[in-house]
Q: What sequence folds into this?
């Protein structure tokens, strides 16, 4: 809707109450309280309900509720931990299912999104989904096994970056810079560094080396980060979040 790829009038959102539909109404989307109405009028259906509503349900109670999903429909699940196998068991045989994992910056169209397709979804469905979600930022098709890793790297990783940005700004405040200015500069520093990785295609280690001069400020600062085991700590954080995502998926 934000990118203009889909007209707001062509979007139909369903929720049990109006509480979660206000944002859609403000954008000009149609709304309803009936899931089956979405199935009747939309061929691409995103399921963004809580994972607990999927697991353990007998097929006739699966989300979305009856009527059965037509064969020309594409079902896209955003529920964390709900595997393609579970989705295909809950939905009618032959349903074209894809599983998506976005991250928070999608709300400002700078997100990182990965998706995997079920056994009945083909190249056409994958291309359609990628076309739609690319407006949210980076969008990549991956094996389903990568989705939990993406959660540890990018879903939870946004919080790691916020923590680092806060620490950067606090360091500047400690040295005498006003907090508001320090926060803006820290954010721009992260934005610029990330853009250089994407635009140049260089490995981060190469770009880091380019900033360092012999005996300069950067190498002295990097020495302090190494003493604090920054790299090992961040790697451990990604591992911990990935392991937790896998645990939640098994429940």
A:
């Amino acid at each position: 809707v934000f990118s203009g790829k889909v007209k707001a009038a062509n979007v139909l959102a369903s929720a049990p109450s109006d509480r979660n539909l206000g944002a859609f109404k403000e954008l000009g989307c149609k709304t309803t309280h009936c899931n089956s109405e979405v199935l009747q009028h939309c061929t691409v259906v995103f399921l963004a309900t809580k994972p607990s509503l999927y697991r353990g349900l007998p097929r006739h109670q699966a989300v979305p509720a009856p009527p059965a999903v037509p064969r020309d429909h594409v079902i896209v699940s955003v529920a964390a931990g709900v595997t393609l196998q579970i989705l295909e068991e809950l939905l009618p045989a032959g349903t074209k299912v894809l599983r998506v994992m976005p991250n928070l910056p999608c709300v400002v169209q700078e997100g990182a999104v990965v998706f995997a397709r079920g056994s009945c979804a083909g190249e056409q469905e994958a291309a359609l989904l990628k076309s739609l979600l690319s407006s949210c930022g980076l969008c990549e098709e991956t094996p389903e096994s990568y989705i939990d890793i993406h959660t540890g790297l990018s879903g939870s990783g946004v919080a790691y970056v916020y923590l680092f940005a806060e620490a950067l700004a606090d360091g500047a405040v400690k040295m005498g810079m006003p907090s508001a200015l320090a926060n803006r500069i820290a954010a721009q520093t992260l934005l610029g560094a990330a853009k250089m990785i994407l635009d140049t295609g260089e490995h981060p280690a190469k770009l880091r080396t380019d900033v360092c001069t012999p005996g300069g400020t950067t190498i002295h600062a990097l020495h302090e980060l190494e003493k604090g085991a920054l790299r090992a700590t961040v790697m451990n954080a990604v591992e911990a979040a990935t392991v937790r995502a896998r645990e939640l998926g098994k429940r």
User: Anything to note?
Assistant: The CA atoms of residues 8 and 26 lie 10 Å apart. The domain at 155-250 is CATH 1.10.3730.10 (ProC C-terminal domain-like fold).
